[in-house]
Every structure is written in structure tokens, then in C-alpha cells.
Amino acid sequence: MGSDWYTSDLQQVPNPKNQKLVLLRHAGVLAMLLAVMASLFVPVWQSAVNRSLAVELEAESAQLQAMEEQHRTLRSQIASLSMPESLVDEAWKKNVSFKQIEADHLVMVARGN
Q1: Is residue 23 part of a domain?
Q2: Which helix (DSSP H) or strand (DSSP E) does residue 71 occupy?
Q3: Closest of 55, 37, 35 to residue 47, by C-alpha
Q4: Does 111 reside within a domain?
Q5: Radius of gyration (Cα) for the chain, nearest Å?
Q6: Is 82's pLDDT higher than 80?
Q7: What is the pLDDT of residues 16-62, one digit of tens each?
Q8: Transmembrane stretches, by residue range (predicted)?
Q9: What is the pLDDT, as a whole number, of residue 22?
């Protein structure tokens, strides 16, 4: 392209000020694009972290419920084994005999506080 008749060759020489300004504009546009990308990425990332924590909380809750159920089962087994009927049943299986203690053979022992 030819030069216009009203411009001189000095006006068409690239000015270092203009090049710095162009570089600043490019850097500004790049910074704005990065800011937009970051503003789009942060909510998606937060949503993913929240979902991960919700799934982990649900798994821990299910595990806690299972452990509580196991605890109740064990307590009921302990309670049933400590009942007199089960003691008598176990004694019968092991051939243990019970004798009634006569009242005249009892020795009372006083207990002090």
C-alpha cells in the first residue's frame, strides 16, 4: 500500500510508545480472559468439592449407623447371656448342679460404711 500524499515518512515509522501501548493492551486482554476463565472455574470447582464432601458424609453416616446397630446387637446379646435363664441353661449343659443353702448354715457378715 502506498503512502498518502499528506503524511510524511516520519509519521509512518512505528513509534516505541505505540508498541508499548499495544503490548499493554494485549496483556490487559489476556489478563481479562484469565480472570473470566478463573471466575468460571471457581464455582465449578466449589461445586465438585461440595459434592465430594456430601458423598463422603453420606458414606460416614451409613458406616456410623451400621456401627450403632452392631453395638445394639452386642448389647442385647450381653444382656441375654447375663439373664438367669441362660445361666441355668449353660450350667445344665456343663453338668453343674445347684444346691439350696439351708438357712441354719448361713453366716451373716456385717458390712461397715
Answers
A1: yes
A2: helix 16-81
A3: 55
A4: no
A5: 45
A6: no
A7: 677 888 899 999 999 999 999 999 999 999 999 999 999 999 999 99
A8: 23-45
A9: 86
The answer to the question of residue 39 being in a domain is yes
85 burial type by CB count under 10 A (0-12 exposed, 13-18 middle, 19+ buried): exposed
CA distances from 17 to 12, 14, 22, 23, 30 (A): 13, 9, 9, 10, 20
pLDDT at 30: 97
The three cell numbers locating residue 17? 510508545
Dist. CA 6–CA 13, nearest whole Å:
15
Q: Which domain holds residue 64?
A: 16-93
Q: Is residue 31 part of a domain?
A: yes
Q: Is the whole model's pTM more than 0.85, yes or no?
A: no
Q: Would you say 9 and 3 are in contact if contact means Cβ atoms under 8 Å apart?
A: yes
For 3, residues 6+ apart whose C-beta sits below 8 A from its C-beta are 9, 12
User: How many domains, the chain?
Assistant: 1
Q: Return the C-alpha cell found at 56.
A: 463422603
Separation of CA 39 from chain center: 26
CA gap 87, 100 in Å, rounded: 16
Cα–Cα dist 77/17, whole Å: 88
